[in-house]
Amino acid sequence: MSNILLEQLTAEIQAGVRLALAEDVGSGDITAQLIPAEQSASARVITRETAVISGVAWVNEVFRQVDSSVHIRWHVADGQRVQANDVLFELEGKARALLTGERAALNFLQTLSAVATRCQYFADMVAGTSVKLLDTRKTLPGLRVAQKYAVTCGGCHNHRMGLYDAFLIKENHITACGGVAATVQAAHRIAPGKPVEVEVENLDELRQALAAGADIIMLDELSLEDMRTAVEINASQAKLEASGNVNEQTIRAIAETGVDYISLGTLTKDIKAVDLSMRLSL
Question: Would 1 be classed as within a structural domain?
Answer without folding.
Answer: no
